[in-house]
Design a protein that fits this description.
Elements lengths: L9 E2 L6 H20 L6 H8 L3 H29 L1 H18 L6 H11 L5 H12 L5 H31 L5 H8 L1 H17 L8 H6 L12 H9 L2 H11 L2 H18 L4 H13 L4 H40 L4 H25 L8 H20 L9 H15 L10 H15 L7 E2 L2
Parallel strand pairs: 1-2
Keywords: Membrane, Nitrate assimilation, Transmembrane, Transmembrane helix
Protein name: MFS transporter
Pfam family, one: MFS_1
Length: about 450
């Protein structure tokens, strides 16, 4: 799929162009999705007591919150190819808001588990975010655009950990008890998600020159069915071993981040004997690194591509993954709170740079099946979170032991990055496209103008 008139600069304060409106709405929507997706996590200590949940049951709800996302991410990428990211995001936000508000009705482990399972579909928002920026920005800045939009979206994981306990505390100040308080608190992100879905439909478009339906009517895009249909698109992506290598890589970076979002607050609460608010604040620092860390991963991907082409992007991805695994192993051994926080921030830096580096490579795997590739790789993140979830549901395995084994797995998974290779022809074509998009200007990819 060739989209014309992509932006070759990211002008942060310019919202007049469709490219920048898509950029800002995509990261904001993904950011807010975290309040629905993981808003329950920093309140889990209260919910554990209210519903009488065991550690195994909590682990099962963590797995449920990310398991369904694997399937939905696979489907949502194909849906983006067919109906466009604008309508796909609108439907996901509006429908996804319903189980977020309904989780307050849970009165048992089973009903709570089903609600978290349904809420997990919201996690597919990431694929649409990456898809939308991929079709809006040129090769010289697409890595930075993807990384920044996803990073600022992932920042929601940190702000959720900090703000949801404050929302909960504010509701308690109204005189309600804790059992009702956490239920009312989840109404807030549900309403916000529904309103965001309406705004996304109103203020964005699929591509620089219009929606996909309009482009197909003008003959600028192939039909949504036939040889370019959803089945053919998925088959083309699924046959490419590079897609599955990136699937594993993303499982070992974004999957790890999702796992940390789910366990960090309760880990600090139990292991260091902190208050719920303090544990949530410290856990939130991990996600707040997304303010710049994932963007750095994309910037470095674009910089490595300037001198090393597509091979340079892959080389940087391997370096970021390896450093992530080593940092996670060190974090798992920390017994002093101050050291644990410091190493966690280093680990957070590399895990998020690895995520940015991954989607600095994705747009170049198969442009005709971009949605399918993005969907499969994005699903890898949740598949990784599901696999990691089993480490933290066992009564016989401590959180520290689980984190250590997870770090070792990341180091091994980093080798999969080296399996991503490109033909000399693809290297030459993308090198020429990069130079054409960059032009002769020395202006930075990210600017305020």
């Amino acid at each position: 799929m060739e989209i014309r008139h992509k932006a070759n600069r990211i002008r942060l304060l310019n919202v007049k162009t469709p490219q920048m409106r898509a950029f800002h709405f995509s990261w904001l929507a993904f950011h807010l999705c975290f309040f629905g997706w993981f808003g329950i996590a920093p309140l889990m200590a209260v919910i554990r007591d209210d519903l009488g949940l065991t550690k195994t049951q909590i682990g099962n709800t963590i797995i449920a919150s990310v398991a369904i996302t694997v399937v939905v991410r696979l489907a949502i990428g194909l849906l983006c190819d067919r109906i466009g990211p604008r309508r796909a995001y609108t439907w996901l936000l509006c429908l996804g808001s319903l189980p977020v508000m309904a989780i307050g009705l849970a009165d048992s482990f089973e009903s709570f588990l089903l609600a978290r399972l349904a809420i997990g579909a919201i996690g597919a928002s990431f694929v649409i975010t990456q898809y939308h920026t991929s079709v809006m920005f040129a090769p010289n800045v697409v890595g930075t655009a993807n990384a920044t939009s996803a990073g600022w979206g992932n920042l929601g994981g940190g702000t959720t950990q900090i703000l949801m306990p404050l929302v909960f505390a504010g509701i308690l100040m109204l005189g309600v008890n804790e059992s009702l308080g956490w239920r009312l608190a989840m109404l807030v992100p549900g309403v916000v998600l529904f309103l965001t879905g309406i705004a996304y439909y109103r203020f964005t478009q699929d591509a620089p020159d219009g929606d996909f339906d309009e482009l197909r009517a003008r003959g600028e895009l192939p039909p949504a069915d036939g040889e370019h249909g959803m089945g053919a698109s998925f088959a083309a992506a699924a046959r490419d071993v590079r897609v599955w290598a990136l699937f594993v890589v993303y499982a070992a970076c974004f999957g790890v981040e999702l796992t940390i979002h789910n366990i960090a607050a309760i880990y600090y609460f139990d292991h260091f004997d902190l208050s719920l608010a303090t544990a949530g604040l410290i856990a939130g620092l991990f996600g707040l690194m997304n303010l710049f860390a994932r963007t750095l991963g994309g910037i470095f991907s674009d910089l490595f591509a300037k001198s090393g082409g597509l091979k340079g992007r892959v080389r940087w991805l391997f370096i970021a993954m390896l450093c992530e695994g080593v940092a996670l192993v060190f974090f798992s051994q920390m017994q002093v709170l101050a050291l644990a926080i410091g190493i966690m921030l280093v680990f957070s830096l590399f895990v998020q740079m690895a995520e940015g580096a991954t989607f600095g490579v994705v747009p170049f795997i198969n442009k005709k099946a971009l949605g399918a590739v993005a969907g499969i790789v994005g699903a890898g993140g949740n598949a990784g979170a599901v696999a990691a979830g089993f480490l933290f549901r066992s009564e016989s395995l401590s959180y520290q032991q689980g984190l250590f084994y997870l770090g070792v797995a990341v180091i091994i998974a980093s080798l999969c990055a080296l399996a991503v290779r490109f033909s000399p022809q693809a290297e030459a074509e993308e090198g020429a496209a990069y130079r054409d998009a960059a032009g002769d200007t020395a202006e930075g990819a990210l600017s305020l103008r």
